[in-house]
Amino acid sequence: MLQGQKVLVTGPTSQVGRPVVRKLAEKNDVYGLARFSKQEDRAAIEALGASTLAVDLADGDFGEVPDDFDYVLNFAVVKSGDFSYDLQANAEGAGRLLAHCRRARAFLHCSTGGVYQYAGHHPLQEDEPLGDNHRVMMPTYSISKIAAESVVRFAARHWNVATTIARFSVPYGNNGGWPWYHLMMMKGGTPIPVHPDKPNLYNPIHEDDYIEMIPGLLGIASVPATTVNWGGSEAVSIEAWCDYMGELTGLGPKFEYTEQSLGSVVLDPSRMHEKLGRTKVEWRDGIRRMIETLNPELLR
Which CATH architecture fits 176-202+234-298? Predict the structure, then answer.
């Protein structure tokens, strides 16, 4: 893990960013950058031992942001549904951020497996076709993420900043995640929408694994940017993790098969395995630990 470095983390209040800030702040000088529209969010990040910077990536005002970071981790994402704002914040904002922090030794841009064209259960390699994968649920998400990747690639070349673009799958852990939302739906008796092309497969990755992989992701940064899939080594279906949560809690999942839901996004982890190694947290263990931390009262 990084030690004695000056690190900027965007999106520090997010489900993914908060555990990263917590871990890195133990041995590094960490700054969290976000809009911080709620003062309690800013106080929570500072309580983890990080400094905070209130910046909206959409307007590009970095006047108060230092430019001498060793590493930049861009986890920020905006999903307002407004194409103009989301493209400005996610794509232009990422480019402005990299330009401002061009003295950094490496820049990690967190993208998503949602940039790939839907391909059923086919494992997707990094050179597979891209597409508007998430339109049915998040209309701006896939397009703005694809645009952000392009801007980051240009900026990395233009300013000669070693960069990694990591296409994230389903992060989860003791700070929540998609499986936890499914657990809450199960608790409330709400049907869980799933695509008819079942099983609905993804590569869930526990926070222990994605935090442990951050130094490696920074280590493989390059010019031109390195692109790598980032997810659990094992593909797991929504149906399987919900059924397992049902075994742990006695809450039976109700599935609603509908075209108005996301289909499988199965990542081929071969490049990740070659460059970073395999993930270590077995998904059942990670799910159980998540429930033990967030909702122990639901366990049998």
Answer: Alpha-Beta Complex (3.90)
pTM attached to this predicted model: 0.97
Of the CA atoms within 13 Å of residue 9, those in its CB half-sphere come to: 30
Question: Which pLDDT tens digit goes with each residue over 243-260?
Answer: 999 999 999 999 999 999
69 half-sphere exposure, CB direction, 13 A CA radius: 28
Report the candidate in 8, 172, 160 with the shortest Cα–Cα distance to residue 76: 8
Sequence ranges of the domains in the chain: 6-171+203-230, 176-202+234-298
State pLDDT tens for residues 40-90.
Answer: 999 999 999 999 999 999 987 899 999 999 999 999 999 999 999 999 999
In CATH, 6-171+203-230 is 3.40.50.720? yes
Q: Among residues 9, 52, 50, 3, which one has the least CA distance to residue 28? A: 3
